[in-house]
Amino acid sequence: MTKPKHPKIKTLVDGSLFTKQDVRQNLTNHLFSLFDGDIVFPEVLSESPYVLANFVKTVDGIISFSDVKGRDGGGEISGFNTEDVFIMGLLRTLADAVLVGANTLRIEPKHKWTPEFIFPEAKVAFQEQKQREKINKKGEYINTFVTLSGSVPFEAPVFSDPNIKTIVFTTKDGAENIKNSGQKPDNVIIEIVFKDNFEKEVLRILRQKYSVKILLVEGGPKVFGSFLSHNLINEIWLTESPILAGNSREANRPTLVMGEVFHPDKAPKLKIISEKYNFDEKENSTGDYRYFRYKVVYPE
Ligand SMILES: NC(=O)c1ccc[n+]([C@@H]2O[C@H](COP(=O)([O-])OP(=O)(O)OC[C@H]3O[C@@H](n4cnc5c(N)ncnc54)[C@H](OP(=O)(O)O)[C@@H]3O)[C@@H](O)[C@H]2O)c1
Hints:
CATH superfamily: Dihydrofolate Reductase, subunit A
GO molecular function, one term: 5-amino-6-(5-phosphoribosylamino)uracil reductase activity
Pathway: Cofactor biosynthesis; riboflavin biosynthesis
Protein name: Bacterial bifunctional deaminase-reductase C-terminal domain-containing protein
Distance between the termini: 56 Å
Keywords: NADP, Oxidoreductase
Shape: globular
Number of strands: 12
Order of helices and strands: EEHEEHHEHHHEEHEHEHEEE
Radius of gyration: 19 Å
Bound molecules: NADP nicotinamide-adenine-dinucleotide phosphate
CATH class: Alpha Beta
Number of helices: 9
Number of domains: 1
Strand content: 25-35%
Organism: Candidatus Liptonbacteria bacterium CG11_big_fil_rev_8_21_14_0_20_35_14
């Protein structure tokens, strides 16, 4: 029998940059001890949600073995690390909705962006946390997808799960393609957004129409890059996996930010909120993974 996975996280740095007015998440005792600390977000008063991004990368910055068919998901980068998937589940619990690019959905069509899907071992603890926050009383999760083309694999199981509200943000042309495909299940919501102001509009609609205060962006790097270039990402939760993936022109493996380049004077800067590590029980020592939580600071 395999042993249930149990995350072992220890804190190296926890220098919260937030003030006394910020909202304490008040993790339940169980989650507090698993995460080795609390999580604080600022109060959301703006017309846009507070946006977290979550990724795992190799030490050389690669986020997918994209050229290796069937092994191109994020799990291969983390080596299916227990602490990484626990943090993914924790963030999905605290967020009101998860947003993913259409390409990630096309590459991982069997995935569901819920806490228990990624880390079933802590399902009860995640549900207790949701109840404590009195969010999503109906027990419903919101998974949102962004596509310009309207090319969406509607046969993916996420679209038929009664516990997940699915919203697809697309352009007028994308919506036309979806309609013509005749594949969209009735329960899937389509939101049509102008291409020019796409990213900002998506966030405005999520906040105003769906009451999303905390949004979790789970990639991929093209969608992350486009939101980042519009100064819309507030935090990056980044796991650094202790491997080197390498790269070449032929393999063309993606790094964390794709499709955007920043001038040296305009590059977003990162400030550490917390840094944690895994604990290696066998060796009784610091593990080799690092779990960073960064605040993003955009130059004027
Ligand atoms: N290591 C990790 O933590 C991690 C996390 C997530 C994903 N991944 C990996 O990343 C890879 C996929 O990443 P990706 O960068 O190719 O794709 P992506 O960011 O997941 O999706 C890109 C697609 O999103 C749509 N889109 C909508 N609005 C957009 C905008 N403003 N800018 C750009 N795209 C927009 C477009 O879809 P249409 O083509 O339909 O128009 C575009 O092709 C996969 O291998 C996945 O496993 C890794």
